[in-house]
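Protocol step 4 of 6: record predicted structures for both targets in the notebook before any analysis. Target 1:
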Amino acid sequence: MQHFWAPEIDPAHPMDCTRAERYAIKRLASGRYLAIEQVHQGVVEVDDSNGAYLFHTHEAALRAADELNRLGQGPVDVLKVE
């Protein structure tokens, strides 16, 4: 059995990563997912979630999406990847 709790992901602090799941960011205008380009570390669009950058928690993905939207690189949304 796997246990995902650790002091750094304490449920008492929900914005500090509490779930061991996978989430991706999707650009709403194009319907494409976002990934990190390996050489220059820039944000690029990819066709499906298999190539997208995957966040380990919903909270971390939300923080990144909020920042992208705030910087005018959105609108983007967070989707759970099964």
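Target 2:
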Amino acid sequence: MKFQKLLVGVRFFTVLSLAAWVSVLFFVDPETSGLPGAAIFLGTLFSGLSGAFTLILVSLARRFLGESGASASFHALFRQGFILSAYVVALLALSRFGILAWWNALLGLATALLVEFTARRASIREET
């Protein structure tokens, strides 16, 4: 039951974050707001994507691992959703400033994978 309550909180946070992102999308003018407007846009997008990626990963884990497997691996799923959203937002920020190239995207992907593998190794060491 605790896992279900946790998912309700993640869903609520995701809907709230995406609503904030949509309001920023409609009410903040990117031409006049400058860097603070871009930061607010990317921040709300990051929080919404983080929740959305987490929910997608949890639903995939439920499908393939079952309810108990998804519950046991929620911490890793949340971390992976966070890393995926950071990767997407970093690509958008690089694109906004005009410095996105294919090698930036590959370097960002390598960084995201390195962070995930390091965190996974640290969590395995904690268990033993």
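Step 5 preliminary note on target 2. The chain has one domain: 2-127. Residues 2-127 form one domain.
Proceed to step 6 after PI sign-off.
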